[in-house]
């Protein structure tokens, strides 16, 4: 009898597994973490945006509650401040569902950025999929001002906002995982997402469509948040901003970033006062061929095949039927995208002295072991001095579902 | 002894796949990559080339001297006293590797899933379950391994499938990692990552026909090598060399990283369940084998009552190291390096002695 009782008591030990049990109700889920500098060295103002789980499903009775709660506290790393924040927030703070980390440009440009972001990789709570957003203003302002109208729940907002903007290529995919791989690889540049809620005063309506960075896009109506362009990080420190178009080109050339397709415009080659709109999509990854020379500059040949689908020809020129004009158009498209690419490459070689294309991957096979690869020094030696040839080739040129546009002369007869 | 010779090829294969194959998911890759960087995936192959001939030689000897297990074979060839001493050394190796692994696994469970629970309690629960499992006898463990194996492997395959999109194959270059000589040395020194193959030889006579054991163990060794290489390849191509050496538990980092579509994002707990079953089985099998070796050395026919004190000792030893990083990078490193020459040379020595004594002419 006593033996049996003891056996039953033994099962109580298994209850030890319940030590970490925590009800959903007792947790606050952080969706966004903001990082700002303070006057004190090593202390940061950390902003946490908590999702309100009661908003967003139809049975909810508390329709008046805001979709999220925002709290800013000071702390030395992402995790320790969550305990401190508990003096304000009623529940245990959980970082498992964090979607984005917003860093103010001030912190990103400082030497200490790597120190603060490092704590994100040590804790198992923050996933490697979390995206890094650099905000022009203070991160706490960004999070507070970011009030989406349609998609009010923050986790949905960031999910759809980022995935759509990434598809169109105006911002790069920028997870913590990539940040650490590239920064620790110490060869290439990392591109972070650039965004702001702070509308700039010097808005230039004259600019071409994609040559904006966040905050400069002329806008009427809608929420104040703009995602556009990329923050360039070298060795874990932000050094510059790429505009939307450069970000796109960087993604075209980077085989590790997926961009679907985008619509862009070029001046009509025959009537430059009008623009032609086309849909750029890439059928295959660019072919990158590196010919490594130990003593001479390395030669990098890049071949990009793409598909262009003409969407609009406001000049009403009959490009579909006339072979010569069509060729002119083809050449104009290729020449323009090539020119943009060469400008970006030149900028990266001369100004950044490293590449945002992750091309160091392709030179690795020329080395037998890592010591010789590191000695050859992609970042400081090979890339800045390389001769880079970029070739674009239109694989297919489509004209949509119309054969001809309206003939203006006949209409205005 | 609850052993009636009912085991078949599939149970032997299942057990070996679990105790060797689980090396892909603990911190063995973190240990190996410290010296070889991105040539991590080549190391198991080199290790296997180093240790596999010895293993085959051992199987050949066991086949020649029919119906003997590992320790009986040692005694037959080397004489009772030396045979027992060497058998005891093998027991110590098995015992220590379980003890060090135990800490490692407890830390994985604790850091990733039970941050609040004390290590001691996790030890107690883990080894409580392991003890009850091991107590059921070798055949029950074999059957359980066989039943659990498909689930464990399917979940592992599922991880491979989900992570495929994040591989950057170019990261395996420069192909020789930190240098050809480094990886050859490391591969040879860590050949004992396959040490479990030798421990399980104590169960040589547990199958109905020993031929079954022979086939099963070779098949399982090859499959588990294959699995380990695939996973090490994934670690390198997902994390790159500078990062993988900083990650203590790459398997769990990957399960946290992958998501199943946009909606199912934090899915690591699914994999944790199957991994945990594999871990339970691994310890059951190994503790049982270690006790068996001990029993054989000291002529204890009915060794199963020893399981309780041994389980207790292992859990106690496991709690001793100051933290899991010292445990892995120092103690386990020493142990693996020490086991390798022993395991490679022992079969050769046995074979030579057997040859000189004429034992092979039967």
UniProtKB/TrEMBL annotation, chain A:
The keyword Flavoprotein does not apply. It is a lipid-anchor. It comes from the Bacteria. The keyword RNA-binding does not apply. It is found in: Membrane. Residues 20-192 form the Spore germination protein N-terminal domain. Coiled coil: none annotated. Keywords: Germination, Lipoprotein, Membrane, Palmitate, Signal. One of its GO terms (cellular component) is membrane. One of its GO terms (biological process) is spore germination. Residues 228-395 form the Spore germination GerAC-like C-terminal domain. Belongs to the GerABKC lipoprotein family. NCBIfam families: spore_ger_x_C. This is Ger(X)C family spore germination protein.
UniProtKB/TrEMBL annotation, chain B:
The chain crosses the membrane at residues 12-33, 39-61, 81-100, 112-134, 146-168, 188-206, 218-238, 270-294, 306-326, 338-356. Its main location: membrane. PANTHER family: SPORE GERMINATION PROTEIN A2 (PTHR34975). Keywords: Germination, Membrane, Transmembrane, Transmembrane helix, Transport. This is GerAB/ArcD/ProY family transporter. It comes from Gracilibacillus oryzae. Belongs to the amino acid-polyamine-organocation (APC) superfamily. Spore germination protein (SGP) (TC 2.A.3.9) family. One of its GO terms (biological process) is spore germination. The lineage of its organism: Bacteria, Bacillati, Bacillota, Bacilli, Bacillales.
């Amino acid at each position: 009898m006593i033996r049996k009782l003891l056996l039953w008591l033994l099962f109580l030990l298994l209850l030890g597994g319940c030590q970490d049990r925590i009800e959903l109700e007792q947790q606050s889920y952080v969706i966004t973490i903001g990082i700002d500098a303070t006057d004190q060295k090593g202390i940061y103002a950390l902003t946490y945006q908590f999702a309100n789980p009661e908003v967003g499903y139809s049975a909810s009775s508390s329709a008046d509650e805001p979709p999220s709660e925002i709290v800013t506290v000071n702390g030395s790393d992402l995790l320790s401040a969550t305990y401190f924040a508990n003096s304000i927030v009623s529940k245990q703070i959980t970082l498992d569902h964090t979607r984005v980390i917003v860093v103010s440009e001030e912190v990103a440009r400082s030497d200490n950025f790597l120190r603060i972001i490092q704590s994100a990789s040590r804790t198992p709570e923050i996933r490697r999929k979390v995206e890094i957003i650099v905000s022009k203003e203070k991160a706490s302002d960004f999070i507070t001002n970011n009030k989406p109208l349609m998609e009010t729940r923050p986790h949905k907002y960031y999910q759809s906002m980022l995935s759509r903007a990434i598809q169109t290529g105006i911002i790069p995919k920028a997870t913590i995982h990539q940040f650490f791989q590239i920064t620790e690889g110490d060869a290439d540049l990392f591109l972070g997402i650039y965004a702001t809620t702070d509308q700039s005063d010097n808005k230039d309506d004259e600019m071409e469509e994609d040559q904006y960075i966040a905050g400069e896009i002329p806008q009427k109506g809608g929420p104040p948040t703009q995602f556009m362009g990329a923050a360039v990080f070298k060795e874990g420190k932000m050094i510059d901003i790429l505009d939307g178009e450069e970000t796109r080109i960087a993604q075209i050339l980077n085989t590790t970033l997926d961009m679907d397709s985008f619509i862009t415009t070029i001046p009509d080659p025959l009537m430059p006062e009008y623009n032609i709109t086309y849909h750029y999509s890439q059928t295959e990854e660019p072919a990158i061929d590196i010919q490594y020379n130990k003593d001479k500059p390395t030669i990098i040949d890049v071949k990009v095949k793409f598909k262009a689908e003409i969407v609009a020809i406001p000049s009403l020129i009959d490009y579909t039927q006339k072979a010569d004009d069509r060729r002119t158009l083809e050449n104009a498209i290729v020449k323009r995208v090539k020119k943009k690419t060469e400008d970006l490459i030149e900028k990266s070689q001369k100004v950044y002295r490293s590449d945002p294309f992750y091309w160091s991957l392709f030179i690795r096979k020329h080395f037998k072991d890592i010591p010789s690869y590191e000695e050859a020094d992609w970042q400081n030696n090979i890339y800045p001095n390389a001769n880079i040839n970029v070739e674009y080739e239109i694989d297919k040129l489509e004209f949509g579902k119309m054969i001809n546009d309206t003939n203006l002369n006949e209409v205005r007869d | 002894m609850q052993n009636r010779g009912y085991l078949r090829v599939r149970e032997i294969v299942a057990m070996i796949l679990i105790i060797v194959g689980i090396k892909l998911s603990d911190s063995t890759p973190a240990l190996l990559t410290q010296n070889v960087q991105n040539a991590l995936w080549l190391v198991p192959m080199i290790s296997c080339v180093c240790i596999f001939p010895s293993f085959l030689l051992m199987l050949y000897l066991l086949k020649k001297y029919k119906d003997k297990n590992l320790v009986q074979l040692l005694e037959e060839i080397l004489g009772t006293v030396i045979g027992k001493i060497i058998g005891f050394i093998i027991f110590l190796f098995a015992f220590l590797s379980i003890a060090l692994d135990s800490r490692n696994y407890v830390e994985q469970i604790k850091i990733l899933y039970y941050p609040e629970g004390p290590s001691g309690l996790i030890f107690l629960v883990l080894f409580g379950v392991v003890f009850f499992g091991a107590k059921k006898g070798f055949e029950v463990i074999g059957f359980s391994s066989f039943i659990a194996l498909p689930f464990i492997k399917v979940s592992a395959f599922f991880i491979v499938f989900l992570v495929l999109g994040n591989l950057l194959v170019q990261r395996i270059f420069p192909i020789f990692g930190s240098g050809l000589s480094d990886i050859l040395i490391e591969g040879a020194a860590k050949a004992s990552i396959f040490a479990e193959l030798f421990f399980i030889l104590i169960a040589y006579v547990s199958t109905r026909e020993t031929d079954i054991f022979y086939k099963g163990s070779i098949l399982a060794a090859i499959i588990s090598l294959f699995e380990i290489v695939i996973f090490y390849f994934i670690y390198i191509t997902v994390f790159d060399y500078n990062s993988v050496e900083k990650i203590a538990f790459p398997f769990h980092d990957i399960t946290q990283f992958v998501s199943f579509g946009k909606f199912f994002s934090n899915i690591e707990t699914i994999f944790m369940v199957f991994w945990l079953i594999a871990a339970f089985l691994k310890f059951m099998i190994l503790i049982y084998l270690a006790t068996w070796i001990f029993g054989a050395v000291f002529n204890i026919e009915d060794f199963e009552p020893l399981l309780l004190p041994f389980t207790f000792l292992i859990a106690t030893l496991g709690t001793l190291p100051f933290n899991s990083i010292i445990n892995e990078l120092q103690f386990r490193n020493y142990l693996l390096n020490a086991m390798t020459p022993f395991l490679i040379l022992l079969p050769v020595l046995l074979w030579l002695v057997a040859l000189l004594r004429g034992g092979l002419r039967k």
